[in-house]
Write a structure and sequence with these properties.
Blueprint lengths: L1 H5 L18 H13 L3 H16 L1 E3 H8 L3 H10 L4 E2 L20 E3 L2 H13 L4 H8 L5 H17 L4 E3 H10 L6 H10 L3 E3 L4 H7 L3 E4 L6
Antiparallel strand pairs: 1-3, 2-3, 4-6, 5-6
Amino acid sequence: MMSKFLSKQGHIIEESRGINPDGDPIQRLQTALSAFLGTDELTAETALIINNACEKGRISFAKVEEISEGNSEEVLLLCWEWRLLVPVRSSKCGEWDDRLLVLDHGEIYELPNVVKYLIKSARRTGQWDPDFALTELFSDTDETLRSRIPDLLKKMNGLAHFNIINAFQIRQACARANVNQSVDTLIALLKAGGVISPKLRALSDVAKAGSPVYEINPCLLA
């Protein structure tokens, strides 16, 4: 069954990055995912599903069901756990902890922006490369900021607790990574890129920190 999944190929977006000549783009994406998802059938299906979603930035439940052939719920739960895909449906706003994961026809799931760059890179190189994805995500910003974003994420992760971080800690991470950008502006950019998302329901954490609390996208920490 695995070979059936590996034989399917998606559209390739060519970019100037070191290309791994071994295998096709889907095989390389699966290899990259297997570094943190393991090597099983769900990983193969996840590669096909997020590859398909990458073309338009989103995918329907019906399409997931068509690709996964019986494992749609398991694959979507896995993608949601790692924030590879997030449901479009929400109760009030667009923050991740306000999204409603409904596994049924008519539902749509979207890729956080940074995940698109992770997928495109992995299809060429066979590696899950958050550093490259972050620099591409910030390609329209100042070159100094762009070059320091990967280190900033590492500093943020070092201060986070189970990938949860508050605004004061982001400010600390900026100082440690020599990022001089306005913290408010930087947080807005990180949110827009799908790198972080506010934890609106973590009221006790917000009260304890005395500042907004954010979730770091776990697929960037894999």
